[in-house]
Write a structure and sequence with these properties.
heterodimer; A: alpha+beta; Dihydrolipoamide Transferase; Chloramphenicol Acetyltransferase; 3 domains; 7-stranded mixed sheet; 4-stranded antiparallel sheet; 12 helices; B: Rossmann fold; 5-stranded parallel sheet; two-stranded antiparallel ribbon; 13 helices; 41% helix
């Protein structure tokens, strides 16, 4: 069997992101030895040759000369076991893939560090480097053609400049047959041209020896840039700290970092691995509100905050005790369901840094006061931004208190690794049928999302009904507890 | 040579004061100031000369292989010692086991003479380890990337040797010298100058072995100093000598003399090994941007390995079957390096705390524990959930 190895473009310097393929020293079908020079590339720092890591036969060149590709992009395929394969297998493979692979990658997002070691970038006039390229890459005839093209350029330039510059100019400037050579420019100028979407071949060079200077590129860009849209005062200021305004002044872009990034990853992982089902329940919590009132006046609870959330947490713990199967997680790797003997109760908290979900460890062992203290210290820590990874790890079930924002309910997304999450909505006074009459009662909505892989509709519904039952009549906890 | 200053004789690179025992053509020589050094290599028989040749060939193979591995994306960076093998192997082979070496980052040849498996050097350049070897096992300190700072460490270590009474006892197994290896660019650093001040005034048993490879990255020596570099040592009152760094015999002889001075209580020596960096500064550098092909060609003709080969051939000490065995050995070495590098795994993070101090240290212990806890904090992924909400009451 042929063994095809892809050689990926390495970082030939320190922290380089891309390089240009200058010249291939091998062609498909060539036999190569370990460390035989395959290709010459040009990075922002230097012109270097890349040696082959394997012995074998070149199957396919994936990137054409003159193309700039990102580090990590496969550039050549080598068959390291050519003897094992019939010859036609290799060539057929190459032909099939060549069409797609020859398309150069757009190097739009190239963001080089720009940092170089001391002494770089100051090649003397007529240095050895340019000679090296022309002897290596261009046909002898191309050299005399270059000076001839320079005087002719001003004549075509106005016509070319009047055209709006295409973002990815694929074809060189029209009208005059160009030499096959590339425009001459220093690497930083090439980068500038690429960033501005300017085709170097269409720029009039004014530098010594016909090189395109930075000023040439900037001037060309200014001539050919469309007039910007009208903007309004303040549009050039980013709307968010750490953000930057887009060139048209109409958007602020902010890099995704830290908590925002982790939140996004966790939410995507959860939403697209666990099939979510949400069930809802509207419940009269007037008795819970009375209990909260009474406990607030109780001397034993004098130093802790008693809130409807606290009673809800307790109600959830009572319900977990009756339906322990809900306090579980899906172990996909082992193909097992893991039932937790403990409850680490997560409380979603909005903090200045973003959403964090610390959990009260072993909440099932805490009495009401202990639970109140646990929630209080956890939310205080979260708001001060000191929540540690261990505070957030190993949660088993979560409550999210959307009610504080005046919201009735929502369909929460599971904290990854958990099977259920309870959303607790706003508590409002509403007309409610109570003992056969319409009364003014405290009413709220509960929503429970659960992972349908391990929790069925019946279990989820019974669980939520039990939470609601306790909130409706806290005394029920005595019966079940 | 246009990059040299005008104060020295122009007919021969390195000048008339340069110690040379082997000409670029491979002939023995011992003229003028070089004459007293001939006896220091008189005991090296054909087998010994072939040994030096083997050292240099293996070091060059290491250099080539590591450079290729960097180009293949297996190493982050690599600094070649290409062209400097004679200065490194010659001086390294003059050392006694108890001597202690403080290298900079290009001393692969010296590492080889200290019995280090050169593969270990690649741990650092692959970026998985801060060091890579047991310094005490080879009396070969870790590579220092900060330019010249280790000359102070070497001088301090030498002052320690002095205070331990390991100098001037007359016992060849006991008397100890310390060698700091550094480059021409380093001599402009404050650290190197301070080290020379301390070494001179305390008479420390340290040898300052400066490899003048003509280029401090892209800066030629001519733009770093108005005088030959070895004159700088004299300014501190340190005996100083320039040696042909592409001559393995002269490098051996001059180092042997300097080591003898140090061990016997005679104090420091400054050696300038006049050589040439035939490769790039590192794999991130492109020397064609700042130096000419002609200059590179000029130095290629003074290649240290070719020079010794010509000498062996002229002496009748060259043996084809031995040479082909050596080629095979070098090839096998190259293959072993490739396999080794591709199989490298990162050492446990805790190992970075193990050898910070000789004995357990409170701060390091605390750091180690903190780091273990920090790592453990990632063990079970930090989960976040659903719509933005917050705990507490309304």
């Amino acid at each position: 069997m042929p063994t095809h190895q892809q050689f990926r473009l390495p970082d030939a310097g320190e922290g380089l992101t891309e390089a240009e393929i200058v010249q291939w020293h091998v062609a498909p079908g060539d036999t190569v030895e370990v460390n035989q020079q395959l290709v010459e590339i040009e990075t922002a720092k230097s012109l270097v040759e890349l040696p082959c890591p394997w012995a074998g036969v070149v199957v396919e060149i994936l990137v054409t000369e003159g193309t700039t590709v990102d580090v990590g992009t496969p550039i050549v395929v080598v068959d390291t076991d050519p003897d094992g394969a019939p010859a036609d297998a290799g060539t057929g493979d190459a032909g099939a893939a060549a069409g797609g692979a020859a398309t150069p990658e757009p190097a739009a997002q190239a963001e080089g560090s720009g940092a170089v070691l001391v002494g770089y970038g100051v090649a003397g006039p007529g240095g050895s480097r340019r000679a090296r390229r022309s002897t290596g890459a261009a046909a002898p005839a191309a050299a005399p053609a270059a000076p001839a093209a320079a005087p002719a350029a001003p004549a075509v330039a106005p016509a070319a400049a009047a055209q709006p510059v295409a973002p990815q100019p694929a074809a060189p400037a029209p009208a005059v047959p160009q030499p096959a050579e590339r425009a001459l420019a220093k690497p930083p100028v090439r980068k500038l041209a690429r960033d501005l979407g300017v085709d170097l071949m269409s720029v009039d060079p004014t530098g010594p020896g016909g090189i395109v200077t930075r000023e040439d590129v900037v001037a060309h860009h200014e001539r050919s840039t469309a007039r910007e849209l009208a903007t309004y005062a303040g549009d050039e200021e980013p709307w968010r700290e750490g953000g930057s305004v887009t060139p048209d002044g109409r958007q602020t872009r902010v890099a995704v970092r830290s908590v925002r990034k982790r939140t996004a990853e966790a939410m995507v992982a959860s939403a697209f691995t666990a099939p979510h089902v949400s069930v809802f329940h509207t419940v009269d919590v007037t008795r819970t509100m009375r209990l909260v009132e009474r406990l607030r006046g109780d001397r034993e609870f004098a130093d802790v905050r008693v809130t409807p959330l606290l009673i809800t947490a307790k109600a959830l713990l009572v319900a977990v005790d009756r339906h322990p199967e809900i306090n579980a997680s899906w172990d996909d790797a082992a193909q097992e369901i893991v039932y937790k003997h403990y409850v680490n109760l997560g409380i979603a908290a909005a903090t200045p840094r973003g959403l964090v979900v610390p959990n009260v460890k072993d909440a099932h062992r805490l009495d009401l006061k202990g639970l109140a203290q646990g929630i209080a210290s956890l939310t205080a820590t979260a708001r001060s931004g000191r929540t540690s990874p261990s505070d957030m790890s190993d949660g088993t079930i979560t409550i999210t208190n959307v009610g504080v924002f005046g919201i009735d309910t929502g369909t929460p997304i599971l904290n990854p690794g958990e099977a259920a999450i309870l959303a607790f909505g706003a508590i409002r006074q509403q007309p409610w049928v109570h003992k056969g009459k319409i009364r003014k009662r405290w009413v709220t909505q509960l929503a429970l999302s659960f992972d349908h892989r391990l929790v069925d509709g019946e279990l989820g519904s019974r669980f939520l009904a039990d939470v609601a039952r306790v909130l409706e009549d806290p005394a029920q906890a005595l019966v079940w507890g | 040579m246009n990059h040299q200053d005008g104060t020295q004789a122009a007919h021969e690179p390195g000048g008339e004061e340069m110690i040379q025992l082997l000409t670029p053509e491979g002939r023995r020589t011992a003229e003028g100031p070089s004459a007293p050094y001939a006896e220091r290599v008189a005991h090296l028989d054909h087998a010994a000369l072939r040994g030096l040749y083997r050292d240099m060939v293996l070091v060059r193979r290491f250099d080539d292989e590591a450079t290729a591995l960097q180009r293949q994306g297996e190493l982050g960076l690599f600094p070649q010692c290409l062209g400097q093998e004679a200065a490194q192997v010659g001086s390294g082979r003059a050392l006694a086991p108890q001597d202690y070496v403080f290298p900079s980052y290009r001393e692969h040849g010296v590492a080889h003479t200290r019995g280090l498996d050169l593969a270990q050097i690649l741990l650092q350049f692959r970026g998985v380890d801060h060091g890579g070897w047991d310094t005490e096992a080879h009396n070969f300190h870790l590579y220092t990337l900060v330019i010249g700072s280790h000359t102070l460490h070497a001088t301090g270590y030498a002052m320690g040797v002095q205070r331990d009474g390991l100098v001037g006892t007359g016992d060849p197994e006991r008397d100890t010298a310390v060698v700091a290896y550094f480059g021409d660019g380093s001599t402009a650093q404050g650290d190197v100058n301070e080290a020379l001040v301390f070494a001179a005034t305390t008479n420390a048993p340290v040898v300052f072995f400066c490899q003048n490879n003509q280029w401090a990255i892209s800066e030629p020596t001519s733009r770093q100093s108005r005088v030959p570099l070895f004159h700088r040592g004299r300014g501190f009152g340190v005996p100083s000598v320039r040696v042909d760094g592409n001559d393995v015999l002269a490098s051996y002889a001059v180092t042997a003399e300097a080591l003898e001075r140090a061990r016997s209580g005679g104090g420091p020596t400054f050696v300038e090994a006049y050589t040439y960096r035939m490769g790039a500064h590192t794999t991130s550098d492109d020397p064609t941007r700042y130096r000419s092909r002609a200059q590179e060609q000029e130095w290629r003709e003074r290649d240290p390995i070719d020079r010794l080969r010509r000498h062996l051939e002229a002496e009748g000490a060259w043996d084809e079957s031995w040479a082909s065995d050596l080629d095979a050995e070098a090839d096998a070495f190259g293959e072993r390096l490739r396999a080794y590098v591709r199989a490298i795994e990162a050492p446990p993070a805790s190992s970075m705390f193990d050898t910070v101090y000789a004995s357990e240290h409170g701060t390091v212990t605390a750091d180690r524990e903190w780091h273990a806890q920090y790592e453990a904090g990632f063990a079970d992924a930090d989960g976040d959930a659903e719509i933005a909400t917050q705990g507490g009451a309304r």
